[in-house]
Fold this sequence. Notes:
This protein has 246 residues and is α/β, with parallel strands linked by helices.
Amino acid sequence: MTMMTIAICDDMQADARKLHKQLERIVPGSEIRIFKSGELLLEELEKKRKPYDAIFVNMDSKKVDGLETIRKIREREMSVAVIFMSRSDEYYRDAFDLFAYNYLLKPVTAATSEYIMEPLKKRLNINTDERVIHFQYRARVYTLRHSQVSFITSSLHIVNFHMTDGSILQCRGKLKDFEKQLENSTFLRCHQSFIINMERITGAKNDSFRIGAHVIPISRSYNRVAHEKYDEYLRFQQECNGEETE
Length: 246
């Protein structure tokens, strides 16, 4: 299953819902949000630490100043794929000036959506077979790729997902609520309150692991199993690297 973050800025509700359904089929499991105005989208971008992977903007709307919205997006983020949508070619020149990823003429068909999203998925190096973690918090559903998570902590019935980009996402619950989604993976339970992604470990001692600047404790009750599992992971990685160099 693939996970992307996509924004649709379009006050034409029928068009926005239609595109939303198309994208749900093309990139299932993704976070796709609809914004009725550029102001609402920009407000969300101010709060959101991780930028959207793709943003679709309707250029024809009277309520959405598409060009101004995209200019402000570009002031803060150049890598996001911005897709212009219009019923005419009036904004082609602006699309080039603002480094648009693509320019779609409305109505946008399912075939067109798939045509532009497939290369974008490859550009973002999204592995469609990669395992994910699902959870819901405050009426919002999250889907995180395993490779995006460095470690997970729990305190007072709040689970914190520490992401590789430095951000932290939260939900209510306990670590055991996610055991099923993490079994037979690179995640390792080393403490009552910590689960770590072994792919992100940068150092190990008898009583702790290190992930960058973070020191993750290993409790006495998990010590033997944690080290055995990590040693097994390292041996497997060495075997894989040996096969690649032969």
